[in-house]
């Protein structure tokens, strides 16, 4: 929100302070300062001149005029000035701004006397853009005929000004207006505030008292809109231009002047915070109805985009169908044009959540939608529309048609019962009762003594406690007050909201800083240590850690080829998603990682190995639909924390990797090695080694992996994940390189198998003894089964088993394969003999023969 300081001072009597001091006070009140921009402070020696004569110069490719301009006797002499100008939109007798020699324009541009086009030019006649008043550079700025010659243009037009650019948080939507910021400034400086919403209020009330309806309108869906106002004017002059003051303020507030009718609606939106829309009455047909969209409806909006409407979209319609996306953007067919003389002004109060979803759904963020989705003052439509038609009459020569169309649904005011000590309990300091009441009244609240909570959302139970348990209302007597928030603060719905307002206005800087005491000897939990070990181990193995977007959409699950009954499709939907394409919390880490891999590959990084560790969110059957709201003035009890945990989805901690391209790089040392499914399985083994558990691997079929290249990962009898090569259709859907592999591993399940801290392996002092063995087995036999048989048969002396060769061919027979292993034996208390290692090897081979039908190669 850009706030010209001169506009702000119109409604609040600020003391003689700098723009930075104003910004500091507003920042302390919660309005974050982005920037301060100064205008016109470097402009000098610009005066009002009158054109006495114009000579058209010939012989040039463009119009060139030699002008004689009177600038007044007090400006470098009494003689008229000769000025060469290329603009043609002014005539003899017009008053124009003139920069005299030695003058300076915005940006530090100095103007001097010089000879050009064969004539002497003693200065320059200025356009609006050259004075920093807008983008209009089509012609010279012509001043009103009664402007005094020789006057200082900087003072006359108010060129000197400072603009505060503020970042408005969603809960302070009322501050997206001069009215709202002025109210905060008045509170910060403790000076009077003049509400611009009261301008013309008495005249409006008198005019509307006996008025009949204006253009017919109704509300078909009360959940979409609870107030809709129409007023009409006729005989409007479409050629009338917006006053310079209005155009200047619009430009400095960040909006482009368009035409008088549009500028008036934008000006009032910036001043009051109430978006308005102007319809060309001649293009309307039949009654205007506010309703939700119907299946198949479309609308071409003002940006010339034909939009397919969603059934939840809020529309303004007439007999022809949709004519505007309510609170977001108008339709092209009914917009006012350069010939519009009959105008209908619309002002309404739409559903904040409905407009927010509509805006995000269509990727259409407008100045109007920004305000509606944060909450607009429900009482503004009547006064804002009244001021709009009055300005159209005053500045555009229109006739205001008597009457107003006012369709509405009665809304009971919110009333909140709160102990006066509650803000202090939340803040941790004591606020006097008088200070609490005074601060709430400064916000605009009506404060009544005693507890009268009727009408409060949630109600009060038999013990006097607000539903949800936020605040204990069992306090009675003088400590209780009932607060009715003002219409411009729809965000105040809860006792804690009121507490925040008191704390904010009393000053966050007054809150004590108390560091929590850490319990002695706590340190990291075993689970935290495990996660750090896993991250370090994967990084050491060549993977790069990333942090992917934690939300996903239905398309992601379809791209993973998940069946309709797959548990990963059951996801927690966000109430207010950042994007309608990704509205649910992730149930697997893979979509985010795969999209990040595709992004890297698309930018030329073809050899990529990424990993992420984080939570996934798996809804529990039978869980409550909504978690209870807890108190904030004390620590929640164990029962309250349990009730919250019960409503939350399960949040297991997982690790996932994706890899493509070369896993071992090519170079001068030789050819590299492409990443494959075995590397994904090895990543799981790396995690298991870091956890100190034994990982068992077996063949499996599980989406999104290739049916013949997928491994199930087990710790004991617990399934902890899957690894392998992705299905070709998944690779195609995400735009990944061929043979991309991935692994997902659930650390939470491994933590249950941890028996304590991982011990550092002991370094044996006795030598190792090795025995090689080659076994012939049927070619369908899993390698993991053979390895498990060798481990079980070799006994305690076996230190490790390593597969170093796989062979299939005529020598082993059709339908068979040869697996060659190195068995390492070691004893902790002696050097092993050949007889001992041979016996252990033979025992291992015997178990393999019994379990998988293995036989020694060459036997």
Tell me the strand order in the biggest sheet: 27-30-31-37-36-35-34
Average pLDDT for all residues: 89
Helix content: 25-40%
Instruction: For the record, give the distance between the C-alpha atoms at the N and C termini, rounded to a whole number.
Output: 86 Å
Number of strands: 41
The shape, in one word, is: elongated
Sheet with the most strands, sense and barrel status: 7 strands, mixed
The CATH architecture assignment of the largest domain turns out to be 3-Layer(bba) Sandwich
Residue windows where pLDDT falls under 50 for at least 5 positions: 453-470, 473-477
Secondary-structure-derived class: alpha+beta
Q: Can you tell me the CATH superfamily of the largest domain?
A: Phenylalanyl-trna Synthetase, Chain B, domain 3
Counted up, domains total 6
For the record, the CATH class of the largest domain is: Alpha Beta
Beta-strand portion reads 25-35%
Keywords, please?
single chain; about 850 residues; alpha+beta; Phenylalanyl-tRNA Synthetase, Chain B, domain 1; OB fold (Dihydrolipoamide Acetyltransferase, E2P); Phenylalanyl-tRNA Synthetase, Chain B, domain 3; 6 domains; 7-stranded mixed β-sheet; 6-stranded antiparallel β-sheet; 41 strands
């Amino acid at each position: 929100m850009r706030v010209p300081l001169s506009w702000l001072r119109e409604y609040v009597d600020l003391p003689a302070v700098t723009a930075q001091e104003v910004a500091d006070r507003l920042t302390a009140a919660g309005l974050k300062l982005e920037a301060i921009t100064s205008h016109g402070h470097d402009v000098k020696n610009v005066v009002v001149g009158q054109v006495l004569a114009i000579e058209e110069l010939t012989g040039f490719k463009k119009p060139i005029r030699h002008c004689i301009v009177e600038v007044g006797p007090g400006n470098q002499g009494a003689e008229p000035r000769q000025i060469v100008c290329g603009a043609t939109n002014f005539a003899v007798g017009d008053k124009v701004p003139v920069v005299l020699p030695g003058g300076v324009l915005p940006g530090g541009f100095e103007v001097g006397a010089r000879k050009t086009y064969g004539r002497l030019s003693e200065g320059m006649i200025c356009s609006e853009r050259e004075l920093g008043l807008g983008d209009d550079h089509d012609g010279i700025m012509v001043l009103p005929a009664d402007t005094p010659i020789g006057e200082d243009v900087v003072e006359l037009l108010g060129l000197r000004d400072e603009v505060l650019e503020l970042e408005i948080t969603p809960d302070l939507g009322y501050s997206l207006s001069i009215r709202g910021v002025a109210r905060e400034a008045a509170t910060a400086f403790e000076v009077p505030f003049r509400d611009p919403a009261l301008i013309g209020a008495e005249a409006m009330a008198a005019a509307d008292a006996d008025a009949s309806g204006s253009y017919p309108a109704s509300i078909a869906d009360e959940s979409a809109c609870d107030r809709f106002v129409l007023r009409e004017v006729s005989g409007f002059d479409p050629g009338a231009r917006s006053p310079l003051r209005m155009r200047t303020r619009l430009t400095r507030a960040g909006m482009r002047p368009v035409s008088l009718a549009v500028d008036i609606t934008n000006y009032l939106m910036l001043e009051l915070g109430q978006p308005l829309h102007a319809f060309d009455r001649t293009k309307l047909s039949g009654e205007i109805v506010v309703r939700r969209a119907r299946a198949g409806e479309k609308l071409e909006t003002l940006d010339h985009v034909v939009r397919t409407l969603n059934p939840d979209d809020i529309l303004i319609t007439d007999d022809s169908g949709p004519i505007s996306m309510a609170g977001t953007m108008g339709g092209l067919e009914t917009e006012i044009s350069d010939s519009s003389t009959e105008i209908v002004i619309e002002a309404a109060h739409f559903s904040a959540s409905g407009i927010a979803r509509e805006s995000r759904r269509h990727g259409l963020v407008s100045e109007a939608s920004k305000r509606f989705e944060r909450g607009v003052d429900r009482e503004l439509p009547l006064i804002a529309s009244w001021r709009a038609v009055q300005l159209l009459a005053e500045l555009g020569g229109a006739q205001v048609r008597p009457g107003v169309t006012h369709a509405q649904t009665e809304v009971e005011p919110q009333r909140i019962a709160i102990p006066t000590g509650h803000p202090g309990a939340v803040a941790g300091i004591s606020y006097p009762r008088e200070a609490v009441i005074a601060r709430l009244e400064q916000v605009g609240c009506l404060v009544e003594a005693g507890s009268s909570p009727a009408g409060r959302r949630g109600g009060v139970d038999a013990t006097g406690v607000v539903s949800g348990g936020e605040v204990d209302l069992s306090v009675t007597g003088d400590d209780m007050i009932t607060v009715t928030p003002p219409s411009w603060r729809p965000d105040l719905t809860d006792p804690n909201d009121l507490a925040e307002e008191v704390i904010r206005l009393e000053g966050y800087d007054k809150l004590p800083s108390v560091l929590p005491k850490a319990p002695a000897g706590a340190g990291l939990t075993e689970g935290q240590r495990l996660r750090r070990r896993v991250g370090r181990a994967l990084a050491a193995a060549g993977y790069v850690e990333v942090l992917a977007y934690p939300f996903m959409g239905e398309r992601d699950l379809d791209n993973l080829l998940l069946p309709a009954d797959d548990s990963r499709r059951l996801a927690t939907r966000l109430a207010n998603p950042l994007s309608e394409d990704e509205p649910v919390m992730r149930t697997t880490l893979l979509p985010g990682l795969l999209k990040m891999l595709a992004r890297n590959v698309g930018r030329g990084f073809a050899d990529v190995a990424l990993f992420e560790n984080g939570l996934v969110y798996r809804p529990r059957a039978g869980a409550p639909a909504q978690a209870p709201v807890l108190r904030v003035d004390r620590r929640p009890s164990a029962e309250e924390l349990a009730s919250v945990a019960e409503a939350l989805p399960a949040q297991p901690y997982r690790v996932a990797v994706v890899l493509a391209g070369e896993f071992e790089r090519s170079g001068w040392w030789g050819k590299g090695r492409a990443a494959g499914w075995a590397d994904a399985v090895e990543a799981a083994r790396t995690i298991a080694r870091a956890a100190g558990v034994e990982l068992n691997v077996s063949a499996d079929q599980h989406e999104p992996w290739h049916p013949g290249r997928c491994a199930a990962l087990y710790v004991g009898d617990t399934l902890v994940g899957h690894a392998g090569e992705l299905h070709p259709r998944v690779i195609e859907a995400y735009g990944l390189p061929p043979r991309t592999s991935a692994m997902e591993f659930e650390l939470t399940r491994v933590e249950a198998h941890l028996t304590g801290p991982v011990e550092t392996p002991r370094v044996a002092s006795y030598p190792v003894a090795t025995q090689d063995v080659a076994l012939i087995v049927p070619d369908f036999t899993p390698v993991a089964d053979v390895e498990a048989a060798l481990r079980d048969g070799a006994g305690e002396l076996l230190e490790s088993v390593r597969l170093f060769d796989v062979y299939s061919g005529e020598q082993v027979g059709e339908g068979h394969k040869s697996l060659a292993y190195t068995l390492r034996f070691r004893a902790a208390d002696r050097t092993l003999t050949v007889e001992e290692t041979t016996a252990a090897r033979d025992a291992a081979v015997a178990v393999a023969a019994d379990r998988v039908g293995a036989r020694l190669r060459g036997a």
